[in-house]
Amino acid sequence: MSRCVLVTGGAGYVGSRLIPHLLEQGHSVRSIDLDMYGTAGRDALERDPRWGEWKERFVHVRGDVREPKDVRAALDGADAVIHLAAISNDPTGEVDEVLTRQVNFDSVGLLVAEARRAGVTRFVNASSSSVFGIKDEPDVIETLEPEPISTYSRYKALAEWIVVCANSPEFTTVNVRPATVCGYSPRQRFDLTVNKLTVDAVRKGVITVHGGQQRRPNVSMIDVINLYGLLLEADPALIGGETFNFGFENHKIIEIAEIIRGEITDRDVTIDVTAVYDQRDYHISSQRLVERLGYTPVGSIRQAVAELRAHLDEFPDPDGAEHHNMKSMKLARNAAPYGFLAGVDRG
Q: What does the DSSP 8-state code read for residue 145?
């Protein structure tokens, strides 16, 4: 069944790969994004040989998920939402806690309320496996209590409750907790573990590992976009009101470095271990999702490294601000969701 899908954060790292994937599946796609990280994803979309076929099924709204009027414009005609927009990753979330709350929590309530009013029947929310913080358990499953240790992950965890509580027979909602995503995107990020270590191995011949003993789950871009597409069609009885971990490769960071070095065989790559500065450590299990939906991963860290390496010439300056959320994010606080909460701006 084809849908009209609103992708929030459609110009971002995952959104730039998800949108062509959904168009290829036959869906119509609407996107909302402030474009503060640029328009590389849409530029690539318009260069795609299939753009002539796709352009009638794609609309981009340059807008803010905290602004009720922008959200309503973006939802026009949509019957499903995949919510990706966020102050993304732990370091960026610490820059301004109020801003992070507004984007990662307040906007979710606004989006859910407006989506239900607009007749949307499915809401897929991108949370994060970082909500678990530091865990000693050998396999972190969904029934364990999150213990977020950052502003970013704390509001991601709280937003999950909004999504779960909104589920109903007419409005299927689901949370996904992806591991750290790795691989290529037209809106490339080099501030994520595998991507950063890969570009350093190729360009510098040195992989710098901070600590290295922290366990860190990863998931390939191809699996992430496949899962979001699958969740648009999954039986509501299997996913409604549920929260799923999503990550299939749990390795220590030093092991990730070794995997990458093993893929860059034409270079003499060394690994330099330095002091640890990020204490997050956890090993997630995605068995529940596998059993519930029968999903089989098709990607891997090795596949993501190979794909990313094949595209590296597209990015002459991996240290450029456009590839690092912390460097390029310019966003002001916006308390508009509280006008909506008070009933002042409900359309």
A: P
Q: Determine the Cα–Cα distance for residues 293 and 245; give it in Å rounded to an integer.
A: 12
Helix (H) or strand (E) holding 20: helix 15-24
Cα 186 from Cα 69, distance rounded (Å): 29
For 227-240, how does the pLDDT look when each residue is reduced to its tens digit (9 = 90+)?
A: 999 999 999 999 99
| Residue located via tokens 């029934």 | 143
Residue type, 141: I
Residue 208 in tokens: 């710098």
As a whole number of angstroms, the distance between CA 280 and CA 267 comes to: 30
Q: What is the pLDDT of residue 129?
A: 92
One-letter amino acid of 134: I
Token pair 């359309």 in the structure block, residue: 347
- CA–CA distance, 340 with 113 (Å, rounded to integer): 10
- Residue extents of the structural domains in the chain: 4-188+218-248+283-298+325-341
Q: What separation, in Å, do the N-terminal and C-terminal C-alpha atoms of the chain show? A: 30
Q: Which two tokens stand for residue 178?
A: 């992806």
CA distance 283 to 138: 6
What is the model's pTM?
0.95
Report how far apart, in Å, the C-alpha atoms of 246 and of each of 57, 139, 161, 312, 338 are: 29, 13, 18, 26, 32
Q: Which amino acid is at 57?
A: R
H or E element: which one contains 301?
A: helix 301-311
- The count of other CB atoms within 10 Å of the CB of residue 156 is 30
Among 329, 88, 314, 83, smallest CA distance to 192 is for 88
CATH of domain 4-188+218-248+283-298+325-341: 3.40.50.720
Strand partners, 94: none
* Lookup: tokens for 319: 């240290």
Residues of the chain short of pLDDT 70, as ranges, are: 90, 276-280
Q: 9: closest CA among 103, 73, 102?
A: 103
Residue 272 to residues 302, 329, 332: CA-CA distances in angstroms?
20, 29, 38
Tally the residues of the chain: 347
